[in-house]
Prior knowledge:
450 residues; alpha+beta; Transposase Inhibitor Protein From Tn5, Chain A, domain 1; 2 domains; 10-stranded mixed β-sheet; two-stranded antiparallel sheet; 15 helices; globular
Amino acid sequence: MKTIKNQVAVEATIAERVWTAAFGSLMAAVAVCFPRRDSRMLGRAMTQGMLMELERRNCWTLTEALGHDGPHRLQHFLSRGAWNHDLARDRLAAWVAAELADNEAVLIADETGDEKSSTDCVGASHQYSGALGGVGLCQVAVHLTYTSPRGHTLIDRELCLPAAWAEDEERRLLRHVPDEVTFATKPQLAAAMLHRARGLGLPARRFTGDEVYGSLELRRTARTLGFDYALAVRADHRASTAVGRLSATELAAKVPARAWMRRRTGNGTKGDRHYDWALIDVLADDAPAGRGEAGHAFLVVRRHRYTRELSFYRCHSTTPVSLAVLVNIICTRWKTEEDFQGAKGLAGLDQGQVTCWTSWMRWSLISLFAAAVLAVTHAATRTVDGTEHGLQLAPASGRELLAVLRITALPTPRRDLEHALHRSVWRRHHRHQATEAHRRWNNITAAATT
């Protein structure tokens, strides 16, 4: 037991050093995006604040933890501060790719929803979200994940602006939605992020996503940009083969029993997960204009061992590729779910009480800063296999790593009595002012209706 504790203590020391170096490296990479020293220091403090031990993360709780008198500095920083969040987004993506670069890196597109209580928040409407488990009042954003054998984290995001929002000039004006922002589907938002990734020269060869992103338009965009892909498609997706044009379900029914291959696709709390897989050659339908049919197109079928439920994936590779490689690419898609959980649970991605376009863009970006530094630190410090040292010790999770960093590297939230009393007075005074304002407004509207 003493040997295990010593090993954990060594890991904690290494984690502190790696975090300090990674955080300093990222802040140096994005420093040019902040023309003023005060905004640069505020961005640095807010990134650290996102990872502090707080029940909730918003401008009120962060400023209290950072020792500010009120939330005005952070609110101004998010809404009107003079700094380039688009350039900072690109610098973040380039920094992550440099830290986690690998020839087998994969980009993953996926969306997530954040529940809201009012349609006043930009983009909030009654829409479907897998995170909510159905239709609800929420904001939905498409994210791009960079994943390699060295690690993975979110690097980009685009807020979905529903058609009703995009067409409502009054709401756009109130929430400061830029004129160039129009309604776009989730695949179109993913395509925009792929264009940015390719423009930045990120070392990534492949692209994957669920059924939402298996459209012909996005697959053609991926090929145009030089990405191989493995994208989920629906059961009624039709593909052309040497024997005719058939649906995915019809093609799966024609696979001989001996052609199925059982492969391990990960592990869970109950052990390894295995599925049956089949590879079917199909004809490419997404060749970019003027590029012909170069490459190899496949339909990959996954079958549950017991329920026989089928899933389908449309794949393309510029070079010959095995089923094992395609299965590995498809299975990396679940990395983005881990990143959503980490960014929300540890870095406050879904907790920002912001209502305007720029504020949302900046809050989400600062959250991605925090999540990215934590992911890079985790990738550099995790124990790949505890048995290498003869120890019965599983690798530390991101949450366990953060618990150590909160003690060794991150600032401690301010909790002295003088500051707490000042904050209490400030909150109660502004609550009183808000109550009086509502009372006066109710009196005015009541008199107008009589």
